Amino acid sequence: MTVEQQKSYANSTQAIPDIRLKFSVLVQYVTPYKRILLLALLLMVSESAISLVTPWLAGRFTEGILGGGYPWGLSVHGLLLLWLVVLAVQALLRFGNQYLLGSASEQMLAQLRMRLYDHLQALPLSFYHERKRGEVLTLLTNDAASLSSFVTGTLLSLLPLFITLIGALVLIFMISPLIAFLAAALVPLFYLVMKILGRRIRPISSAMVNEYGKTFSFSIVEENLNLLPVIKSFTREAAESARFQQGNLRLLELTRQYLRIQAVLSPVIQFLAAAGIVLLLWVGTGYVQSEQLTAGELVSLLLYGMLLTRPVSGLADVYGQVQLARGSAERLLDVFSI
To answer: In CATH, what number does 31-336 get?
Structure first.
């Protein structure tokens, strides 16, 4: 192994621990809102748990109208009323967690921007000599907002998604172990597809943020507005417009590449999930015909299979959001470490 290869290997092995170490710096910005975030997380988990009740109620309703009787001695109207109450509770929980997360996100963003601004004021002038103003302004706007949105929107949604995924698989297993095994076997396939299609998202997302700060959003605009009298005196409007358009087109191309990958990723995952539901329905129909399953259990299986598509599709979106937030977090951490 050459000296260059050894250095490259050493840097690659130290990168992940270094990032984890730096992330401890950002924990202090989340800590003041941990109670609100934990309460919102509890509401999200409760909503996910209650969502698992609806397929079961649908199955019992199907059994009842086919003459099998309703649970707990309820009438058809009693079961429908119970179903309505479950949906109402689910809606209230969703309202509560969305309000709490929105409030916490804005407060966290305001605090992060304030501390970042104070830190930027304390940095030596050499820091600003090495960077364009647009890069610094992007830290206060795009990067701070991206990180706050990731913590309150994407990161906290992971646990409810996994609860929905595991809960649906467990309840499917209680109805039919074989069908549960088939459903669980599809999950690694979804992950593999996300890994293959999503591995191109990270470099593109990082390039988008860098281009936004360096050439498109603030650097050129802020610089040219300050020098507008000089630009007009030398009749440089057309040249500066062309320079702005060059950065604008670069950002447009990067955005198109990102959207193209995202546009492929989500439909592919949703198609695989839908194909999995059709497979479960195919197997389940054979079980009903052989009287190994009732019609009500088949309805529950179908709805649980549809419920599985939510966490699978959600995880596909999470992958892209993680890559976007990672670039913003690394830039903020680099500044805070100075």
So the answer is: 1.20.1560.10
